[in-house]
Amino acid sequence: MANTPTPIGGKYENKDIVSLDQFSSKDINILFKKVGLMKRIANKAKKSEILKGNIVALIFYEPSTRTFSSFSAAIKRLGGETIDLRDLERVSSVAKGESLKDTVRTLEAYCDALVIRHPEKGTAELTSEYIEIPVINAGDGTGEHPTQALLDLYTINEQRGALGGLTGLMVGDMLNGRTVHSLIRGLSKFKNNTVYLLSPKELRLSVSDREDFQKRGIRLIEIFSENEIPRNAHFWYWTRVQKERFKNLNTYNRVKNRFILNPDLIDKYAGKKTIFMHPLPRVLEIAEEVDKDPRAMYFRHQLKNGMYVRMALLGLVLGRLK
Amino acid sequence: MANTPTPIGGKYENKDIVSLDQFSSKDINILFKKVGLMKRIANKAKKSEILKGNIVALIFYEPSTRTFSSFSAAIKRLGGETIDLRDLERVSSVAKGESLKDTVRTLEAYCDALVIRHPEKGTAELTSEYIEIPVINAGDGTGEHPTQALLDLYTINEQRGALGGLTGLMVGDMLNGRTVHSLIRGLSKFKNNTVYLLSPKELRLSVSDREDFQKRGIRLIEIFSENEIPRNAHFWYWTRVQKERFKNLNTYNRVKNRFILNPDLIDKYAGKKTIFMHPLPRVLEIAEEVDKDPRAMYFRHQLKNGMYVRMALLGLVLGRLK
Amino acid sequence: MANTPTPIGGKYENKDIVSLDQFSSKDINILFKKVGLMKRIANKAKKSEILKGNIVALIFYEPSTRTFSSFSAAIKRLGGETIDLRDLERVSSVAKGESLKDTVRTLEAYCDALVIRHPEKGTAELTSEYIEIPVINAGDGTGEHPTQALLDLYTINEQRGALGGLTGLMVGDMLNGRTVHSLIRGLSKFKNNTVYLLSPKELRLSVSDREDFQKRGIRLIEIFSENEIPRNAHFWYWTRVQKERFKNLNTYNRVKNRFILNPDLIDKYAGKKTIFMHPLPRVLEIAEEVDKDPRAMYFRHQLKNGMYVRMALLGLVLGRLK
User: Fold this and answer.
1) Residue B281: which of A53, A55, A102 has the nearest Cβ?
2) Which domain covers residue A163, as residue numbers?
3) Residue numbers in A near C90 (CB within 8 A)
4) Contacts (Cβ under 8 Å, ≥6 apart) of A50
5) Do A110 and B70 touch (CB under 8 A)?
6) Does A96 qualify as catalytic in the annotation?
7) Which stretches of C7-93 are DSSP H helices?
8) Statement to judge: residues A184 and A206 lie in one domain
9) What is the pTM assigned to this prediction?
10) Whether A57 contacts A113, CB under 8 Å
11) What are phi and psi of B161, to 5 degrees?
């Protein structure tokens, strides 16, 4: 029984950001319009004062390099401060048996917003019910990772000039992959999108997710073999099969490297403008030689866009960007 | 053989803050007079420059969410910076066999003040003897936690209009509870205070603590059953029975939930203005439904007051608040 | 097959700092000329804006108190910000199997420079090849620790008035000690230096290091007994025998405390102006009573000089100090 999070409805100030479902295409455009300014701020290495006086708690119950660093840099580039709580079982009162609810209510007293990553689906939304300062979901288990989807959409729009009328390919773990789920939600808000989902049969979309997504007006086509990859798609979105989501390591070992993005596959199916995306971290599912291909977006564009999008989002949610 | 720490004597600059024993009632009033300004700074989300250019080391040898975050926010809201050293056995030279003495002498070279939490009683005072920059005790095992007691006193004064002539109730682990010990020391500085101490017999005050406190002019009444709770006390101060202080888990399990703050107990013994306090983290010793009671101070007032009191204390100790 | 890192050649901006081999004596003098200004900034407790708007990643794969805190303070005292990644196996995507290469390429997207400590020799240089922002080596296993050597040289110059024509003594683990290796490289750049190397036979310089150093024009004399210590040397440089470098703990236990710096040894061999240095952490190899000797530099001068030298280096490398 999922709750319905509050729609943005054109007004970001004081909103929690827990799911892509809160965003209309118009909301996404409002956000993206602020990104240009964020880029200029970040690139002139001149600290902005947009978040001066704001403190944001970064509370991470799961490992993270990218999302943690990206939020931290976004806040600091705008002149704000962070309080970092990582590795929580060791360094915090969680070690003394404190509940998540009490932990976040405590941080609410000191901070102006809270960014949370947690291994359990639904935790970000629960957190947003416990406290009144804005909560931003930085990944909740197999649930969602809305800022990742927003940066992915931003990158697609930047590179392909539109967010509708696209044909895409998503590869990897469709069952557990939260970045995939959030991106499908995002693409559903724009017209005439078709996405091919390539995964081992063991990792296909769950029935409930498939039904949920189909209602949204996006065309999803499940495929289970590389032969079925459509030629010349607008984007390829590769993902890691996440070891930490498997209870049975044998299953993991059987499926982990089924589909590898490599020059052969690119030659067979990609077009000249097909962009190659990945939320990172990547383990073995993209051959390193692909990194140099100008169509590869994962190091060159997605990372920086992630920082810019998070800067814009924080500025809006904290009411400091109008 | 306890040392006597230096009294504040009306002058905070460059003082170590290791024990409530250093404070006279006048010193406490000097501190509390600065808190109003701190509140205004924190609430306008406009970073102050009071601690601009100051770096404070937060060195935590024990887990902490609240105290760590509260000090961190206090410093940052005043424009200062922190160097965070947590989980020290893993990430620092303690892992290479370095002594506490050498570790803090090292930090002294880089920082302007040092906040320390440590599992062993007396460590904060020892630290203050090793180095010349101000040292603030953020909890030393079963010893003291002076900034907790100061925020507790501030909250009592704010809510009940005085710090003398009070009747209070303290519940939980009187043997090991450092927050209780510090608060008793604090209340002893004001006239005509009576505190009932409710604990399992196994966790009553030690003989030496009882003798020490009795000399200070506070009236302490030990009770071992809820029936003996005085009606209509000015404040109730509940505490967690701290698992980490027990060598024998059987003892812990026998005593941990002996006394629970719940609506029944409140109906029987509390008055309309009795305030309910807890230093947090709370595990099961306060029923969650009490959280909504307007007399419950632990989330609504104690946390924020803690940040304000720490802001004022740091500003004074670092000589930046006059 | 060691690569040759790029020489500074009088121009610090955008250079990686991985080895003392990059520095000429002139480069070292350029750096040291900036240190006075850094001292004045740090001591007036007035935050500089020299690094305002810069974010530096501190990525530590090994425990560190001193180097971590010193870099952190250096950056913050100049108005810059840090992103701290410590204990990486636990809190980052390294836990998900991400390569060092991908991790640092990620941080490059958010930060303006990267300071790295890693247990494997050569890692800092490898890192500098992966990314384009400046990389600073904060210790790479048994390899180098160039900022330590720079602060050591600064301290020798400050105390003894020159960096050439010196007679020194280095004691401890000559085989694995990276601070010793970096300092020998540094002293080689100046004329007429002689260094006595006192170590257990098991920990003497490797053949390849000895050959390498001999080519550089420094005179090295290996000794294996305290009786051979030269009288009245300009400096003594003691080091810890690093437990973490030993595969066999029996060997470690046999050699760890062979040579102890104590008042007896000082009386026998030191001169009135001989300075006593140590990179810290110290375990048992310097008797605590030596700490008070005015000739002991390790707490009084080396630590602070380390912060000043790192401030100057960061300002130069980031192009903000001219």
Assistant:
1) A102
2) 146-302
3) 63, 87, 90
4) A41, A78, A79, A80, A315, A320, A321
5) yes
6) yes
7) 25-43, 66-77, 88-91
8) yes
9) 0.93
10) yes
11) 80, 5
Q: Two tokens at B111? A: 């920082």
With bands split at pLDDT 50, 70 and 90, how would you rate the model's confidence at A3? low
**B170 in Cβ contact with B183 (< 8 Å):** yes
Q: How far apart are CA A98 and CA A89, in angstroms?
A: 10
**Residue of B87, B91, B106 with shortest CB distance to C66:** B106
Interface of B with C (CB under 8 A): 52-55, 57, 81, 83-85, 87, 90-98, 102-103, 105-107, 109-112
3-state secondary structure at position A226: helix
Is the pLDDT confidence value at B21 over 80? yes
Residue in this structure with the two tokens 């004596």, named with its chain if needed:
C25
Exposed/middle/buried for residue C243 (C-beta within 10 Å: 0-12, 13-18, 19+):
middle
Q: From the centroid of its chain, how far is CA C134? A: 18
Share of chain B above pLDDT 70, in %: 95
If one counts the domains in chain C, the total is 2
- ipTM of this complex: 0.91
Q: Are residues A113 and A234 in the same domain?
A: no
Report how far apart, in Å, the C-alpha atoms of B38 and of each of A153, B69, B297 are. Answer: 43, 17, 19
Question: Would you say residue C201 lies in a domain?
Answer: yes
What confidence tens digit (pLDDT) does each residue in A152-190 have?
A: 999 999 999 999 999 999 999 999 888 999 999 999 999
pLDDT in tens, B182-218: 999 999 999 999 999 999 999 999 999 999 998 998 9
Query: Is residue A263 domain-shared with residue A291, that is, in the same domain?
Result: yes
Instruction: Indicate whether A160 and A281 sit together in one domain.
Output: yes
Spatial contact of A135 and A116, defined as CB atoms under 8 Å apart: yes
The CATH number for A174's domain is: 3.40.50.1370
Mutate to test the interface with C, among B106, B114, B132, B318 (most CBs of C within 10 A): B106
Per-residue pLDDT tens for B101-156?
A: 999 999 999 999 999 999 899 999 999 999 999 999 999 988 889 999 999 999 99
Task: Indicate the SS3 state at residue B90.
Answer: helix
Q: What band does A95 get if pLDDT is binned at 50, 70 and 90?
A: low
Question: Which two three-digit tokens encode residue C178?
Answer: 């990276």
Same domain, C153 and C298: yes
- Taking the CA of residue A144 and the nearest CA in chain B, the distance in Å comes to 26
Read off the tokens for C314. 């960061």
CA distance A212 to A202: 19
Catalytic residue status for A117: yes
Question: How many CB pairs below 8 Å do chains B and C form together?
Answer: 87
Cα–Cα distances (Å) from C239 to A174, C65, C121, C178, C298, in that order, read 54, 16, 19, 10, 11
B167 or B47, which is more confident: B167
| Residues paired with residue A221 on neighbouring β-strands, in sequence order | A196
Is C40 a domain residue?
A: yes
**For residues B93-104, b (16+ Cβ closer than 10 Å) or e, as one string?**
bbbbebbbebbb
DSSP-derived pairing of the beta strands A81-86 and A55-60: parallel
The C-alpha of A97 sits at a distance from chain B's nearest C-alpha, in angstroms, of 6
Domain annotation covers residue A5: no
> What H or E segment, with its residue span, contains residue B178?
helix B178-187
Domain assignment present for residue A194? The answer is: yes
Q: Are B231 and B272 in contact (CB under 8 A)?
A: no
**What string of DSSP letters covers B50-66?**
TTTT-EEEEEESS--SH
Quote the Cα angle for B181-B185-B191, to 5°.
140
Question: Does residue B165 sit in the same domain as residue B249?
Answer: yes
Q: Which two tokens stand for residue B125?
A: 């005072």
At B129, phi and psi to the nearest 5? -80, -25
Give the C-alpha separation, C280 to C282, whole Å. Answer: 5
- Whether residues C137 and C214 share a domain: the answer is no
Do C177 and C119 share a structural domain?
A: no
